[in-house]
Amino acid sequence: MQQLNPPENLVNKSFTDSFSDNCCAGKTIGTKSSSGAVRKGIDVEKLIGIDNGALRLQPLLKPAWGRQGIAYGPYTRTNGLAFAVFLSNGHNTSQTERIEPLTERLHRWMIGPETDKPAKRLLRWTSSQEKSRMLRKLLWWIRSTSRISRYFKPFKLPNIDENMAVGWFPREVPVDPTVEGNAFIVHATGAENGELWTRLGGYLLSAFRGLQNLQVYYIVVLREKGAAYYAASVPNAHGLAAYPNMRPIAIDPFNDDATVYAGVYQSILGQNGFEVDTRIYGANVAQISDIATWYGTAQAADDLIGDGLLDGAEADKGGVWSVSQGSYELTADGARATQPDSVAMLECPTPSGLIHLLVETSTQITGVRIVWRVQDKNQFWSFLADGEKCQLMIQDHDSWECLAVSDLWYLQPRAINSLQILDDSKTFSLYLNGQLVFNKCFTDTRLQNATGVGIGGINPNNSLYFRSFEAHPRTIPIPSELDLGSPWVVEGTEIAITEDFAGAAGDLMGKTTTSGSKVWHRNIGLGVIKLTGNSTAKVQADAKHPNPGRTAYTIDWDQPEIADLQVDITPPGTRRGQGEKGRGGFIFWQDADNYITINNWLDDCYGGASMSSFFYLNGFEELFDAVWTNVGKRISWGVSHRLRMVFDGMNYMIFINDEPVLYRALTDVYPDAARLRINRVGIVANWEWGNDTGSVFQNFVAKV
After folding, report:
1. Residues 6+ apart with CB under 8 A from 389
2. What pLDDT score was predicted for residue 7?
3. Which pLDDT score, from 0 to 100, does residue 1 have?
4. Distances (CA, A) of 588 to 585, 591, 592, 593
5. Which residues in the chain show pLDDT less than 70?
6. Residue 125 is inside which H or E element, if any?
7. In the 8-state DSSP scheme, what is residue 25?
8. How many CB atoms lie within 10 A of CB 248?
9. Rg (CA), the chain
10. Phi, psi angles (nearest 5°) of residue 18
11. 3-state helix, strand, coil in the chain (%, to 5)
12. What would the DSSP string read from start to end of 470-485?
């Protein structure tokens, strides 16, 4: 790629774009933020707008990179130049997929979730705002059908699994963000939802799978060479630190584009013909003086350049090196081991979550290692790489245990190799030149609180050098210059109603709650949820006789501004292949024309599970506006899970076993949506491409 030279007198101006101004779709690019930053980028299909305090990126009809995105700049690469974005990606597993024949799709659209007769649905639709969006929806379906997308060249559907890129790029509109710049890339995995990648030289490093559809901070801090990646979200979000802290995700030591643009780009939004928008709540660029060094936020770091012995030498940060065995010498090219089995360590104030090391090799390669979770010289973890293999080991006093070894990964000769470790105290991943070694992460809590880190050399080698060692804490406060506000976090603090489902077997309808003195009513459907006589309530259905459509049992709710519901659900069946379907969840009801339902989705036809949300507003439900997140193995047949949802009439968050998995606001889906009053709440056996076959509910709790 051609190196782009920086313009003369280019000044790196800080800015914050809070998207406080409204802007019609197609009119955003070229406008200025309140701080004066010009919103550059590209909007080929005129779909980028601003409303309700956030930028909106709508799904492209023709999915591809280089057609939709916002950018700021140009800037000159310097240590500590940071770009932060706070957003909700439309769907982290957005990807191109071919759908069923158009006639089948239109038939399902006409009958919807089967709560209303088709004639009533069509009548309601004619007076709904959905009518104005139908043409684009129809065009998207046409180009996504198998026959048309395969054989009609103008509608040929490319294969795209990477849907969003956030970071620094060498041009205002990157041709393909997966092959240029320093950026986060969101990769669709299907059942495990999103996979978070970072660019590292010519590689894409997989930080973790299972990125859920939540509000996320993405922060990329440039260095004179390379960048450091950080991310944050709400408490307990998988793979991410809890705001106001951020988690170090990866180090890129290679990229050196001199001139860069800060940007967010989208290639595709939605899945399987469903539409969903991305929302960006804020973006800013700032020069962070506190981390304007080659090692940024590291708590221990050393370039390992110098002369003399390493033992007793002062690191760039983190104190004095201690060589516990063997010996190292410092040179102008880096540190090198001069005795067999040399180990040098630094003691950090806290356990390290991201450790990175460069190793320069020649044609002769000997083994090197990163040691971490060091308790003392006889207790630590070791990630070893040489010219033939990689190995993971733990030393516990005089005994070594090998957990993994493979010859699929090894140091490259005559190259600068990057080794790094990502560790959250419970799980860790090992990387060599951006590739996930052993193709897996490891779950192990041994020595999780140990704070030492270091390097190891197996045999003396005068042409193998260690350089640029750095270790970062597991979480770090987000710099104040990059703070764009808190993700939505609301929870009930006072129990208002409980239901233990105790009592004689019989219909739940008419039962008074265990506490709160509310009476259960069936508001929707023909199905039945019965008390079992064993302190549970069960949907009266089985694989041969599914529940007959959406069925909702509700109770009066006295706090219309917010409800925090929780219940334990055991999906029917015991394993895949039994024809059992889980569709249990909650309903938040204003009136017969306005409510939202959420449910788990577990089915033989897919290799995972999901949490889904549906919106019945102003008397009409657009089925293909449903918003969901794929949750992998978090939900399974015959295994109880705790489902929780908090809803304030506009925003909602869904949790599985206390882990947040899905956030949305009604205005994310419908810009003109009004806040609902929550007049009733309850449990539901929903329809979602199939009906529930016998979910069991237990321990219902409602908080205010």
Report:
1. 405, 406, 407, 409, 410
2. 47
3. 36
4. 10, 9, 11, 12
5. 1-10, 149, 151, 153-154
6. helix 118-126
7. T
8. 29
9. 27
10. -100, 0
11. 10, 45, 45
12. EEEES-EEPPGGG---
